[in-house]
Design a protein that fits this description.
The chain has 196 residues and is mainly β. The protein has 1 helix and 18 strands. 7% of the residues lie in helices and 51% in strands.
């Protein structure tokens, strides 16, 4: 069930009438003082949220042309996981997101995944409890056929998985995740900054 067509229509319409600033977005690169690295105008639009029961083995991927910017989880393996996806606009163009590539499986209780330098996370699949398998979907962003650059990769502080909630900072997207133990174990997220 994709809500992308209505989202694109809404973004296009709002951009056309100059109302894009009224939507929940992060600031542009120029506004945040990173114009030394890029003069591109970058906008991150919170566009889609979905809650799932991960332990059922559901493969979650963001809708077309959206990327992961956050994740939250409550409870044990039967608890609810929330994924947050966003559209990326660069110089008023929606960034294209390539078809996802899935990683190999790894045991959740000792898992570490970090996307390649030019890749972002667009999905995740987990089955069972902490002894179950986890894999990640990555993709590349581009505008006008040119790859979008990512920089400043950083890991968050660890938080307890059973009450975890992490969101990207300004102009950031999710690029990695690490978890150890069961639902009481620690989870960290890796983010990278969009340059343009």
């Amino acid at each position: 069930m994709s809500r992308f067509p209505s989202t694109v229509a809404r973004v296009s319409t709002l951009a056309a009438v100059g109302l894009l600033a009224a939507m929940p977005v992060t600031a542009s690169a120029a506004e945040t003082g990173s114009s030394a690295q890029s003069s591109a105008q970058i906008v991150v639009i919170d566009a889609y949220t979905e809650k799932i029961k991960e332990s059922a083995g559901v493969a979650f991927t963001c809708p077309t042309n959206q990327v992961l910017i956050g994740r939250a989880h409550g409870g044990d393996e039967n608890g609810t996981t929330t994924y947050y996806c966003a559209l990326i606009l660069i110089d008023a163009q929606i960034a294209a997101v390539s078809a996802p590539t899935w990683s190999g499986n790894q045991k959740e209780s000792n898992s570490l995944f970090s996307a390649a330098t030019d890749q972002v996370l667009v999905g995740r699949q987990h089955s069972g409890d902490e002894n179950g398998q986890t894999r990640y979907a990555t993709a590349q962003l581009s505008v006008g056929g040119r790859a979008v650059t990512l920089t400043g990769r950083r890991w968050t502080d660890p938080q307890k998985e059973s009450s975890s909630n992490s969101r990207a900072g300004e102009l950031e997207v999710m690029v990695g995740r690490q978890h150890s133990g069961d639902e009481n174990g620690q989870t960290r997220y890796e983010y990278a900054r969009l340059v343009g």
